[in-house]
Amino acid sequence: MKNINTLKTLMITAILLAAGGSAMAQATLDHNKALAGNSLPGDAPGYPITLSQPGHYVLKSNLQVPAGVHGIEITGKNVTLDLNGFSIMGTGDCSRNDGTKVVTCSGTVGSSIGVRVVADAATVRNGTVSGFDYGIDVVYLGNGTQGGVVLADLLLSRNVRAGLSSNAAKGPYLRASGLIATLNGENGLNVFNGLIERSQANNNGSIGFSLNSQVVSLLDSFAYGNRIAGVDKGVLRGVNLQFNGVNRTGSIQSMGGNMDGGTPF
Questions:
Q1: C-beta contacts of 39-45 below 8 A and 24+ residues apart
Q2: Quick one: CA dihedral 20, 24, 26, 30, positive or negative?
Q3: Closest by alpha carbon to 192, among 233, 221, 151, 148?
Q4: Which of 25, 207, 219, 221 yields a CA-CA distance of 20 to 30 A from 45?
Q5: Residues 6+ away with beta carbon under 8 Å from 17
Q6: Are 217 and 238 contacting, i.e. CB atoms less than 8 angstroms apart?
Q7: For residue 33, what are the contacts with CB-CB under 8 A and spacing of at least 6?
Q8: Nearest to 115 by CA among 136, 130, 133, 131
Q9: What is the pLDDT of residue 146?
Q10: pTM for the model
């Protein structure tokens, strides 16, 4: 009898876990679904794809986003967006003059954003965002008490203004790792509040890491060949700055292990 009761308990637990997991079920995204719409709650046909419900969303193809619209908008909390190695592509493009370090961008963009995050407790990871006004934009929402925003293992390239913008004085606390921001028309990464680690900002048209505040920590990262500066402001540890217009500017606090060209600080 004891074994039967134990078996019943295990079966009931499995059923409850399955039922609980269904609310967070995985959904797939691709270009054809984006055009058709209505495959997700609150998502109209065409772009942007709107992610309004908690869950794990996985990209299954590149997204070719028309000019003047956003690619994906995350409007619901507790969303994980896995680009799955694919790209979200706008209509812009940028190139660099290696002599002057000037980055010139072309293409009709129309103030578009690749991934616009307007909800807390969101994660975006594992792919490329290129050809927009801003690659990723994290928008002010509140005080970040629901878990903040996590960005990981992303290439943010050839965006007309910046690879990443997260400039709200409050709002979700940003944690970013494994980002590469390169060949963006202005700054590589604009971040006001949070932590960036193991990331690169290379060959951008203005500043590599524009941190704007000493509440932003930049750890174990690299800035190379940016036209104006490698880093502006922030708290730095283990940061290597090479061949930027100036390697660092603004108010920088060093936690050690940094290199300004060949000079440690």
A1: 42/75
A2: positive
A3: 233
A4: 25
A5: none
A6: no
A7: 39, 49
A8: 136
A9: 57
A10: 0.89
